[in-house]
Write a structure and sequence with these properties.
It is elongated and about 60 Å long. By secondary structure, it is α+β, with helices and mostly antiparallel strands. It is about 20% helix and about 25% strand. β8 and β9 form a beta hairpin. It starts with 15 loop residues before the first strand and ends in a 5-residue tail after the last helix.
Length: about 190
């Protein structure tokens, strides 16, 4: 208990570790010999309310090598994302460099009357995307990181889900629950 400092045992048939970029810390509490899975990547998004796109735009190979997009969102346009290796932190920081990169990228494909000025940006946020290595494969370099998600059951039965995207959360949940049922001995 973080407030009282008290510790106490909790019994469960299965524990699911769905802690995003922090999954390795939970895995280490389960078994310190388990390999690390996460390669944290910082991603920044900007929201431009005055830009009203009818359709989304995908930029499959942005100048930084990542995929970028402009997407109608909440009556404006969401623009993302940057992707670069980062340190694991609970408070990732947005940099002006990332905001300028996204604004310049969007402006490079928008018409002259749609150009985004710094004052047009209403919201900016940076998160950590937990890119993961598949624990069932030999150690590999970052070009072989899993771009979807991985569900792993440790020798003790801890079910860990890592990686993934906003667009496949339903499949991640289903795969995780299937693994939890298997780990708990409840699978049909």
């Amino acid at each position: 208990d973080k407030r009282s400092g008290e510790t106490f045992p909790i019994r469960a048939r299965v524990v699911i570790n769905a802690t995003g970029p922090f999954i390795d810390g939970i895995r280490a509490m389960d078994d310190s010999s388990l390999p690390k899975l996460v390669v944290p990547s910082a991603g920044t998004h900007i929201l431009v309310p005055k830009l009203k796109l009818k359709d989304g735009v995908l930029i499959p190979e942005a100048p930084n090598g990542s995929v970028a997009f402009l997407k109608p969102f909440e009556g404006g346009t969401l623009i993302g994302t940057t992707e670069e290796n980062t340190e694991l932190t609970i408070n990732p920081q947005t940099t002006q460099k990332h905001v300028d990169y996204l604004r310049d990228l969007a402006n490079s494909i928008l018409s002259p009357e749609q150009q985004i000025q710094p004052s047009d940006i209403a919201s900016v946020w940076t998160g950590i995307r937990p890119l993961v290595k598949d624990p069932k494969k030999a150690a590999s370099d970052t070009t072989e990181l899993v771009r979807n998600h991985v569900v792993d059951i440790s020798p003790s039965g801890l079910v860990t889900v890592g990686g993934g995207k906003w667009t496949n959360f339903g499949r991640m949940a289903q795969d995780t629950m299937d693994a939890a049922l298997q780990s708990a001995g409840l699978a049909e």
